[in-house]
What we know:
By secondary structure, this protein is α/β, with parallel strands linked by helices. Helices cover 45% and strands 12% of the residues. Strands 3-2-1-4-5-6-7 form a seven-stranded parallel β-sheet, with helices on both faces. Helix 9 (267-280) packs across helix 13 (373-383).
Amino acid sequence: MLITIATLGSRGDVQPFLALAVALARAGHRARLASNEPFRDLVTSYGIDFAPLGGDIRQIVGDRGRAALVAADGKPIASLRALREFVGPLVREGLARTCAALEGSDVIMGQILAPGAAHYAERHGLPYFDVGYVPIVPTRAFPHPGAPTSIGSGLASLLSHFAAEQVFWQAFRRDVNAFRRDALGLGPASFLGPSARPAHRRPPTLLGYSTEIIPRPSDWPDHVATTGAWCLDSPEGYTPPAEVAAFLAAGPPPVYVGFGSMTVEEPEAVTRCLLDGIRRAKRRAVLSTGWGGLADTGARGDVLFVGDLPHEWLFPRMAAIVHHGGAGTTAAALRAGVPQLVVPFLSDQPFWGHRVQRSGVGPAPVPIGDLSAEKLAGALDRMGDPAMQRRAAAIGRLVRAERGADGAVEAMERALAPIG
């Protein structure tokens, strides 16, 4: 049975689904990951088949696009326009490549940025699963991860999920309907898209995040499976760069600072702020330059600037993690069992920062616009508190014990059993 997972985005968007694909292969299934071309080598290095679904998100979205998405965050109309202008090319390219990428599949799994997958499955009568690493199924228990955390629970929370669905759906509804018409020979989808379906008629859903920090809501239907985070193990035989190994051996565990695919307007100024805060707290640090978030200032001694390193290898060797609050990075830090500080930029990142604080594994999030050397130093001091360190270590043990991707495979197999 060939199972194809369709996903687009940054590495943080893709890596959880690679972990799921690895678990599918481990269970005896044929697994294929359809995603952005730059991730081909990463995917195939784990023995997983790859199909191109889109180009390089850095070229499609770019610094200007990410800045526009940050500026529009929390503003529905502005967000819809920014999605159309900057994310639209990525989605349209994905739609154009969907049929070739999914050809021959027996089962299809699709992430929100790959909307063509569900419609391809509909056209060919194939079993389909929604997959994600954030709790996006409507509930009264908490607001949509992209909505303000101040909404709280209840009806307002439920409505926030439908509002977020509509922002994304209306941004791409015309593109999806053109794909349905021209590539699949189908009629247009409902004007309200996924929001038109009652909960019990939505596709079976696999969600890969830890229930240790987000308990399963009681109002979710049985076909929604929460399985634990989908994390890759350290690459087999991985050897870190010599300078990284030497730096780690030269003193106490450092703190990690990195903002992944996020871009800041003044990288040099932000980096100086970070270095000032780190030194005020008398810490050593590993700084990841990411996609334009930080600048290598040439600082040495107590600071090491690095490029892309596997979080699953690096994070357990850190004393604390400072990051942007992407779902994958948050999960990797939880799994490592060390305190973390979320510096959110947009979207679901404040949600994860709030959950980290609420779970006692990190201080209150510090939005990127509020970041200062003083606030960073204070947060690093709080992350050195033995009680927080013990709490993070305890949560780490629980997260590592979750079934994660293997549990998702078992949930998929149970859902498919009645089909035969």
